[in-house]
Fold these 3 entries.
Entry 1:
Amino acid sequence: MKVAIGTDTYWPRVNGVTVSIQTLKRELEKMGHECYILAPTYDDKVKEIEKNVIRIPALHVSTISKEDRLTSPFAKGKIFKHLDEIKPDIIHVQTEFTMGTMVKKYALKHNIPLIITCHTFWEEYIHHYIPFFPEKPEKAFVRYLTKKFFKNAKYIIVPTERMEEKLKQYNVDAKTVVVPTGIAKEDFDGISKEDEKKNSFLYEKYPVLKNKKVLLYVGRVGHEKNLSFLLKSMQKLKEKFKDFVLLIVGDGPGRKEFEEMTKTLGIEDNVIFTGYMDRKIIKRVYAFADVFTFASKTETQGLVTIEAMICGTPVVAIGEMGTKDVMQGDNGGFMVKDDLDEFTDKIYLLLTDEKLYSQKSKEAYEYSMNWTTDVQIKKIMDVYEKALKG
């Protein structure tokens, strides 16, 4: 089977959609299928090292996001030419912007089964990206565009039941299938927490981490991730537990403001902003951490919680949106309300109760095995096969 994936985001852009797409491609190729990714160009000087990734000229939309690119709307002919050469059996669109739109048009024109994955709950995210429009009409417009974009798909893949319910509220007229994005076990498994605590590469750059309890956040450093809540929680934690450091791994437009916020809250000595880290070493950071902390309320899935769990690191997270669907309660940690005291208390409990910590660490690993790629790829293949049969 030949699968062509159209996406407006891919490496070197670091986000959950990028990881999801690369994981899907890798799993399809393991099964002997051919998978091609059509993605925007980020830097013409960067040499492509991944097989069957086709770069299309893109525009830099800095007024919306400095990190992202928008596939050129004038590249339709080039995209169609590449797809003519590939001759895909399935077209799988992963994003709703210019690349997704043009690849979708090709699928409909050539009567190729069209699958679309809905990764992002744009109604909640859009105001963070375009804050200069009134929020209410902005959300209404997003709902209209969502319904229009998903029209004509054979199947829509959604990562959670919550997203499926939302699309039904939009009256999207297409079959939906819930398939969580799988995590490749081999990408995160096999690291000893004990060894990392003794010999972490982080000690050389951040010697303050020695003999401290380490909390961790991994993700975009933006306002939509509710990092102000997380930092306020650290201020509360410091009132009763001083020997800790929060590592914030990632980058984004809010970094400077959040760095200033740590000074205002008096926790600048307890928080380290590391910037981006290569995914090849991130599992060592997950294993090194004592507790993974996640306050985002806008996640479609929040798979970083599962990545942490595979490394045996318990999670404390706000139980809303995708995080609620993933954790499904206190599995592998604690899923709490949007409440600073409760969030902080659960972190404190894991840092101070050794027996509970050991139990939750073991539970985290065992629960994470429900979310591995070998489980989820079978569901994707079932969708493809049904789409091909009509």
Note: The chain has two domains: 2-182+373-389, 185-370.
Entry 2:
Amino acid sequence: MSVATPTAVAQDHAVLVLGGLRIPRNTLFWGLHAAGWTAYGCAQYLGALLYDKEPGYLQVITSAAVSGFFVTMPLRYIYRYLWRQRPRTILVGIALTSYITALAWRLCVNLAYDRFMPQMDWKMVHWYEYLSGALQGTYLMLCWSGLYFGIKYYESLQYQREATLRSAALAQEAQLRMLRYQLNPHFLFNTLNAISTLILDGQNRTANQSVTRLSDFLRYTLDQDPMKKVTVRQELDALSMYLSTEQLRFNDRLRLEFAIEEAALEALVPSLLLQPLIENAVKYAVSPREGGGTIRVEGRVRGIMLELVVADDGPGARSANALVEGRGVGLRNTRERLHVLYGDRHRFAALNAHPGVRIEIALPFEKAPGP
């Protein structure tokens, strides 16, 4: 049985922030759409006044503005689809859509000329003459498209900024929770007690190494920037500092297995991503059992995704609900951080593996920059 985090994130947000004002997206679109075609009509009308256009031209201008308003309405929904495509597809789609829309618009405009200005010196006889002026119309549609994608890009930047701020807050909260709930006084008491036992047994060198490792790990958790991404190799080094103190308590009862591919070692992950999951495994799979248990950490790159697994051979949970409630702090922190950082580009699942629990994470593969 699995518990997977919901990853669907709506691409069209209900509110857009502009200059500190929160404007509903539909209101913004229709307002700009109407204002744009109204401005076009006004500009054409001023031009008619300057050049003393013939009677009926005002009706043509009105028809052009109104038809332009309606024929460009579908562009919004077409461009929503194009927004998710590759850049080349977007550019080709914009050019093709703009030209087809310009053809429809020029047909309406030329019909208006025929209807309201019958006194014209030239008359359209052939059907294709009703499509004349499509090239000039295409330029206008490209301007409409540029404005749409410009606002869309600005909206995307605003959303990413908001997501980054929320991610920073959640990451900070996750770090504080780890220190409060996971590195709790019981953990420190047990670790220091184990060190005291080593000193009484005359194993002073081992005790000194253990104190140093505990100090290094505590310093790492306090100094680490919660927004910083580290390589899987660095994450494993931090885990090593943590696990070395736990092995003082459990000795050979705590068995560790690592199966990390070389390519995965240089992948970037949020700092302190695996520690809460490992701590959960120690608490629920190793500590309660006289014979201890095995914790296995796997890492591999599959296509554009980095896959990480933390599995144990403990008793597991009676049900999915028990799994979530029993290990809620570590799982919830990890799920929330991944959800904010990656949106629908990640996968997180907690599985009852029989025996044990298996945590599976898939993230976009980001390789650490070279030196």
Note: Residues 317 and 323 are 5 Å apart (CA to CA).
Entry 3:
Amino acid sequence: MPDPPVLGFYADDFTGAVDALLQLTRAGARARLLLRSPAPATLAAEAAGYDAIGVAGTARSLLPDELERQVRPVLTGLAALGPRVVQYKACSTADSSPTVGSLGRVLEIGREVFGQGCVPMLFAQPDFGRYTCFGHHFAAEGGVVHRLDRQPTMAHHPTTPMRESDLAVHLGHQTPLPIGSWPFRGYADPGGLLTALSSSSPAGLVLDALTEEHLRAAAAAVVALDGSRPVFAIGSGGLTSGLAHALGPFSRPGTPEARPRPGDGPVLVVSGSCSPLTARQVRHAEDAGWLHLSLAPGDPAAADGLRAPVLDALRAGRSVVVDSGAAGADVPVAVDAVAPGLAGLVRAAVDAQLTRRVVVCGGDTSSRVTGLLGATALEIVANPVGNVVLCRVGADDPALDGLELLLKGGQVGPVDLFERVRSL
């Protein structure tokens, strides 16, 4: 019998799940990401031979009751595998509210499933421009670091706008449980953090991090907790990175290099992202000669009307980007209004064998489109730039199996990202 994985994780959207997969692969872990919530026996079979196993979900966009129904069974199944740590992979900007993607509710569920007192919560990810200092969270945009409630994208997020930078206060609005903070200066005394995490109060402890060393100190304390049962933790890809370092070393080489393959053909990008950065990426692709089309949200016939020009362009070897018109717009577009149409265009292109490389933009959009396509698993095949990765799809459908897929969060990637992906 293979050893159980040392880390299990549930991610609250698909782009976040891929970020966790990247952090683990960089550390040399053999990691697999499942895109459906499997039965316990299936989960155990899928995890066999892997250092880490993850399940991608959609909790970031769910109401509390819906979140409960999706998250609790997965956390219970992961706990049953007996890993050292189970992480709820959350966004590094702590996207959540009392009514949507509630991390407070996640804290309550995790404490019940794992029988745990204090749950470590770490949202910083310094290599991605996310920092927590004295409990307050900061996020970079356009090369400038902003306090979370003043960061241009997050302060005006269409679903979970950030009104508070103190994470203990922000999360405290989502649960009656007490939330505390641990300052970065406290890492000078590792025993102090371990004692705090071993207690039953507060229910959740927000951990500062400004550097990679802080991530590793925090993760080392998490891994040092009572090993008689899995430890539950909530946090970003920064936490995943720290945990991978604390749980290693692993025997597998790190992130694979991109391997160009002649004849890969054109790329199809579909986007429901509201981010101004995505809008700049779309404009850059258009300037580079891509066909740019916009989907009319909520119109079932709109995608059908775009199918012919999309397929004709791909057939001619021209890469295509189809967006919802939401990026940088004043009025956001609901994911449910655009995801079916975008998924239908991807499906048509894949079935016609006109592309084997697809990019989906937007965290919630990535989750919905990937689910609608019927993909079942992802493994990383290339890391073209920064925290952006190209994955190979596992699927029961032969037409979809092996598709190269990049899931891009709205605020992720350089402005020329689409061209970089095309030229791999």
Note: Residues 64-81 form the longest helix (18 residues).
